[in-house]
Amino acid sequence: MADKQDASTAVAVVDPDGRVSGWSEGGRLLLGWTAEDLVGHPVTDLLVDPAPPGFPQGYGAGPDPTGFVLLRHRDGSTVDAVVTAHPLFGPDGRTLGQVMTVQRWGRRPVIADRAFEQSPFALGVYDPELRFLWINASSGRVIAHSEEQVLGKKYREVLPEFDRTLFPERDDKPYTDALAEVARTGRATRLITVFRPRGSDYANAWATSIWPVRDAAGRVRAVANWGFDMSAEYWARQRLLLLNEASGGIGRTLDVVGTAQELAGTPVPGFVDLVTVDLFDEVLRGEEPPSVPALTSGRPIVLSRAARHSAKEDTDRAPGPPVPVSHPADSVAARCMATGRSAVELAAEPGQGGEWAFGPGLAADPAHWPPGNPMIDASIAADGLTGRITVPLRARGALLGVVAFSRLDRPEAFTADDLILAEELTAKAAVAVDNARRFSRERTTALTLQRSLLPQGLPHQEAVAVASRYLPAGTDTEVGGDWFDVIPLSSARVALVVGDVVGHGLHASASMGRLRTAVRTLADVDLPPDELLTHLDDLVLHLTADGRPTGPFQQTGETGATCLYTVYDPVSRRLTLASAGHPLPLIISPDGTRTPVPGHPGPPLGIGGLPFEATELELTEGSLLALYTDGLMESRARDVDQRTNELQRVLDHSATSLEALCDTVVDAMLPAHRTDDAALLLARTHALDPHHVADWDIEPDAAEVPRARKLAVDQVDAWGLEEAAFVTELVVSELVTNAIRYGEPPIRLRLIRDASLICEVSDASNTAPHLRRARDFDEGGRGLLLVAQLTQGWGTRHTTNGKTIWCAQDLPRPERH
Hints:
Helices cover about 30% and strands about 25% of the residues. The protein contains 20 helices and 32 strands. The strands form six sheets. It has a seven-stranded mixed beta sheet with strand order 13-12-11-17-16-14-15, sandwiched between helices. The chain has a five-stranded antiparallel beta sheet with strand order 2-1-5-4-3. A hairpin with a 5-residue loop joins β3 (about 65-70) and β4 (about 80-90). The longest helix is centred in the middle third of the chain and has 38 residues, at about 415-455. It is rod-shaped.
């Protein structure tokens, strides 16, 4: 038995009559028979079964000179063997018989040869110059050549298509170059090669290994390769990669058009050559899309092409605005939108003879298609298309539009797997588009609310020249609660206000509106800045308490706000301010130097229990005040002090007007993509001409009333305002009389000529007067009613030393020199 295991190849010489005339030692080792046993006997005596046809002379003739037989061992056992017969010729060409070699089946190299030849993997061997030495049957089927056709030929001659890559955009190495590199370097490599076999419309993916074949001395004598078709796995992986790319690439911004453009660009060119995304105009505006029954009226469906991406066009150019497109009622797109089902159109049926070509996966089989797909539509070839997938864009039960995935020059037809991929991409994008639509609607609502709550135009007043900017955050961010206001006050003063509500969205806008209204109401009472912020702080605390949910509802949002309230008096050129957690204003003198603001911001509104500090400073006429929210200072690279210095440098820039300076500040300070709202209010101070202010001390004696009347009338006449003398005389008489009768000394009368003629009477009493209705026989009680009837406004302003009662008469606007 050991001999049988170690047997080598047996060689037998058989004469023309079929008798053994020679027997090798290998034969004895293989079968146990000696030369004495076999020479002169028919070779068929070695066979267990009857001799095959043509054995031994013609056995194994043809392309394969080998045959399989069952031989008899001398010990009675049988041996599976492979027999190879070769004719033996004499010098005259006469046949002298056959030379037969016998090898045990199951030992190398026979079993290896058979295994390689019958392997389902494509195998090949090439010399260092890449000339074919051997290929197996599977390799021949792949390259559409037999072994006899390619032996001795160079790889590039037989397969020139392997000298280039099917997808240049992926930087794939041509397969021929990979073979040559292994032959040159002697280093094995493994790679995935995508190519289109001859006669097929589909690109197949092959996993291949290339390795050097060395001789005993270690020199590279050949290059071998093997590969197997992994198209189904490869294309499934590519679909997953594309879906993964779509997950991160679609819906990055809460912008409808931007999301449509992301959908159009993702599958090009890896999946298709052209993608169009058509949306309803209502979707672009953030409104609810039309209902499906409205699409079945038989009229064309008009959409807007929000995105179009083609592999043939310049993708670097900026996309244009959406343009209207019309889909006839009988078009595929209209039917898809009406039915909610996708459609696949092919310019021609793939494959030959009506059969389906093998594509990436079993989905090329028509049995795997949904009902009604695919449709053979030769008319799309007129548009240069080989195939098109049309998918309705639906999200949360609403139809938003339609998407078309088209192939232009690719010969491969769409498969059912391609349809699944297109629907997956569309489904991901549909949710993102609907999210963007809903956000756009909410943002538009919040922005509309916020803009309606902000001043639509700054009021006319003479104390300061003002300009403002409000810039909401980018389209992917909710509207914030930044706000500003300019409020004319009594005695030619003006209040400049800027604030910021915590949070974003409708809640922040609504809270901002309530705070702005509250500030205006408190400003009408003429409270000092610190007292006004104290009342405002109480209001925010009440709003916070009101906002706490008492049932299953969630809290409406964050609470808290900051506010800066300043009052400028053009008569004294003094600025009084107080801050509730808000940045202090930046003040630039006319010579360009920065005026320091003493004091510090107090706590934000909504903290409660902490005082606010009022700061007062005198300004030079022509000083520039910059009030802003923290959105203007937002920067990841610089701290607040650095940004404040930058703002100061920008404000030093000469500008023809405050409006132009606002634009300069916005362009310099705000990044292109900001995440917070920003408000800016610029004011340049004016000083009232001292000749337009007159004041007198009044003794607390009723006899002083005629003197006060005369002083006021003379001053009005000196200003050339004779038409206002009569009313001025009456209101001065009433106000001075009330101050003498009900107030406390010292009493002071002041006239201010500004856009209006202002009359003020101050005393040290804190008792505020009020209007009351006098009865028919009452001797008094009509003074303030008379003042209110004769003037365009009146009020009381409390001061640290008492109160001031004022009234104003409208005058023609004075010219400023």
